[in-house]
TrEMBL record:
The keyword Transmembrane helix applies. GO terms for cellular component: membrane. Pfam families: Nramp. One of its GO terms (molecular function) is metal ion transmembrane transporter activity. Keywords: Membrane, Transmembrane, Transmembrane helix. This is Divalent metal cation transporter. It is found in: Membrane.
Amino acid sequence: MTKLKTLLKVLGPGLLFASMAIGTSHLVLSTKAGAQYGWVMVIPIILANLFKYPFFEFGIRYTTVTEKTLVEGYLNLGKKYLWIYAFVTLISTFTILAALYVVTAGLFMNLFGISGMSVSMIALCLFLLISLLLIIGKYQFLEDSLKAVISILFVALLITTVMVLQKGVVPGSESYQRPEIFNETGILFLIGLMGWMPTAVEASGWVSLWSIENLKTMKNKPSLGLALQEFNVGYFLTALLAVFFMIIGWMTLYGTGTELSGSAVVFADQVVSLFTVHIGNWAYILIAVAAFTTMFSTCMTAHDAVSRVSIDVLEKLFPTQKAFKGKNTFAVTVILMALVNWVVIDRFSANMANLVALATFVSFVFAPLLGWMNLKTVVGKDVPEPYRPKLGLKILTYLGIVFLSLFALYYCWEIIV
């Protein structure tokens, strides 16, 4: 009981990771995977979560042991590695946030029947609200609020999944033929699913920064074992919810021939409708609120993370610049991120797909290198031998690097050819 209470006290980075990851990759991609290809898609979902685990775990490990951010670890490897991470972060800064806010704004309009306002204006309202919450509430508010959000989402999804399983598979159309997985279209879908499952590898730096903030709120520094337990809870929850979404898609849509929207916003609305079919129309507003809250919390965690990591990268690249170390730096950065990404939405909405494709390309291409950089930080001189990853985790890391490399090479091949 004492260990459980201690674990609950240090809950933070792992839950923030879960909240950030359980966005479009789960709500859209996992559900669509089950709906299009059936139960077999549980295999790539589990493999992606398994092979990527070490890269995110190293962010917690390095920070807990050294009380330094993973960004500083990259700098210790050599400034060129920090510049690589800075480049990936820059691309994410001007694309990922804009894409998340567009989906969330569109979902809000669809679910609650909002008309008379553009997606751009709804996104602006979301930017302003989330910026205020992050600036006023800071890390502690983010952590406390997301504990409630994740708990509610887990219970709602668990109930829905159980009800779906009890009803059994929806009768499919006799003429339905499952799409090929190992043709060009299927493999590109797999790349998207596994590439963003549970999230992009560069988010390991975000987890590290949340770990630093969590340490600041605690009187006594947690042991490495306890910090990893906390992260493992969040990571396991992330993987489990991905499987839940996949099961819901499989049991309710697979084989029916239902046309699935290519728009993340419209598809998310279809998913909410699936929930109400199995729970009842009375639950629509509850499920709609849960779906919107899921995306809202993803926006909030990503906005916080991108702001923090941008500041940390600039501090390390330009240590003599006092502008990056001021008292109000975080608030200014949060607002700047909101304004820049709103401009992207407002001015480049027609090219949003191209911008997201650019972010996807950069993320996939650099993922193996970032994974290798994470490994080098936790086996370097900063981390004492007893705290370095054991042989089994190292083997899993190398397998993960090979896994990411093969995906990156194939993705590049498809893009170039």
